[in-house]
Design goal:
Layout (H helix, E strand, L loop, with lengths): L20 H7 L25 H9 L13 H14 L3 E5 L2 H12 L5 E5 L4 H10 L6 E5 L4 H6 L5 E7 L11 H10 L3 E5 L4 H4 L9 E5 L13 E5 L1 H14 L5 H11 L2 H20 L4 E5 L9 H7 L6 E6 L3 H10 L4 E2 L9 E3 L11 H7 L5 E5 L5 H13 L2
Parallel strand pairs: 2-3, 2-4, 4-5, 5-6, 10-11
Antiparallel strand pairs: 1-7, 6-7, 8-9, 9-12, 11-12
Helix pairs in contact: 1-3, 3-10, 4-9, 13-15
This protein binds pyridoxal-5'-phosphate.
The site of pyridoxal-5'-phosphate has 14 residues, from helix 4.
Length: 405
């Protein structure tokens, strides 16, 4: 019987050697059932059925490819994984239940007792807690370094160092790490470089092309883009990703098919959104710099940023997150935040809605005063994730904050 789908040589496979980023973000990894649906199907099922006992045995035995159980594989999750692998330029991607699950799964599956990690001191707060409170129990030790100082990365290496871990640009101060230089340092030591690419996304920065071995995302942020779901993903070579997959399949930190579907749809607009977030953030950073009451603006798109040249080299734009110091102390920062009326007060970022937070008492609140001082998380610092509302309206809301200083 003729299958109408095969009358036209419609392209279903989209690979990164043939297609550009914006096309891949919309089409890579797409799938279609015999119903001919145009949007991706969603597979909310825990398990899969077999046509016979023989087939069930062959699937479980690994002699036959196919789905068994959604903790192992699920078609909606695999579509998201294929698209992320194409966008980051990796051989394989494995999705996880959250960004933190992506970091945990990568560390647990690729490190063992006695191994050492060199980590940027300016990574996500829960990443530091994960290393210090939990991975330390398994005998994995960590040294934190100033992420902008290449020599500090080199000096922190030990014979047992197996992984270097960083986030660039950092949150909330937009400190950059030279991915190419630190990749070289990692590889001289036979260690893996892992980059948390949450702030730039592959639309602005592709760490694997710059020498990183593994890229990690909190899909919760820009990959979703509309603040709907929590999830994560790990991208890299087959060799390491097989280990990560093995842990997730056994440890259960898998992504739900519904969330995977939301992320896959979110990726369709990633390229446009990141360009728009970056353009608005640059405009607002320049504007904030000129306002009375603002001491300093931290954004790598500003020519005054100490690593502006590096930002131009390793990113195609500067992203949607900036931070600024207001004149005064914690009370002034809180007055500023409380005087805004539209911008959401929330710790999340990477949303089409602009969000504002006071890092020293929220996202970075658990750090000791000494650690905050060393990392530059001052009491008068405010972080803004610039959304896609009109720039003029965002500025009018920030003016309410300025007037309250
Ligand atoms: C949010 C975030 C994470 C953690 O992701 P979850 O999805 O919340 O688990 C990790 N790294 C960075 C840079 C983040 O912003």
């Amino acid at each position: 019987m003729a299958d109408s789908r095969f009358e036209r040589p419609e392209r279903i496979q989209f690979t990164d050697d043939e297609f550009e980023f914006s096309t891949l973000a919309i089409r890579a990894g797409q799938q279609r059932t015999n119903e001919g649906e145009h949007s991706d199907p969603i597979y909310p099922t825990s398990s899969f059925v077999y046509s016979s006992a023989r087939e069930a045995a062959a699937r479980f035995g690994g002699e036959e490819e196919g789905n068994i159980y959604s903790r192992f594989t699920n078609p909606s999750v695999m579509a998201f994984e294929r698209r992320m692998a194409a966008l980051e330029g990796g051989e394989r991607a494995v999705a996880t239940s959250s960004g933190m699950a992506a970091i945990l799964s990568t560390c647990i599956s690729l490190l063992q007792q006695g191994d050492h990690v060199v980590c940027s001191r300016s990574v996500f707060g829960s990443t530091i807690s994960l290393f210090d409170k939990y991975l330390s129990r398994t005998g994995i030790s960590v040294t934190y370094v100033n992420p902008t100082d290449n020599q500090a990365w080199r000096d922190a290496l030990q014979p047992e160092t197996k992984m270097l871990f960083l986030e660039t640009p950092s949150n909330p101060l937009a400190e950059l790490t030279d991915i190419e230089a630190v990749a070289e340092i990692a590889h001289e030591a036979d260690a893996l470089l892992v980059v948390d690419n949450c702030f730039c996304t592959p639309a602005l920065q592709r760490p694997l092309q710059q020498g990183a071995d593994i890229v990690i995302h909190s899909a919760t942020k820009y990959l979703d883009g509309q603040g709907r779901c929590v999830g994560g993903v790990v991208v890299g070579r087959n060799k390491e990703l097989e280990e990560v997959f093995g842990f997730i399949r056994t440890g259960g930190a898998c992504l739900s098919p519904f969330n995977a579907w939301v992320f896959t749809k979110g990726l369709e607009t990633l390229d446009l959104r990141m360009k728009a977030h970056s353009a608005s953030a640059l405009e607002i950073a320049q504007w904030l710099q000129r306002q009375k009451g603002i001491d300093k603006v931290h954004y790598s798109g500003l020519p005054q940023h100490p690593q502006h040249q590096l930002a131009k080299k390793q990113q195609t734009a500067f992203g949607g997150v900036l931070s600024f110091e207001v004149q005064g102390d914690k009370e002034a920062a809180w007055r500023f935040i409380d005087a805004t009326q539209m911008i959401s007060i929330t710790g999340n970022l990477g949303d089409v809605k602009s969000t504002i937070t006071h890092p020293a008492t929220t996202t970075h609140g658990r750090m000791t005063e000494a650690a905050k001082a060393e990392a530059g998380i001052k009491a008068n610092l405010i972080r803004l994730s610039v959304g896609l509302e009109s720039v003029a309206d965002i500025q009018r809301d920030l003016e309410l904050g300025l007037a309250a200083l």
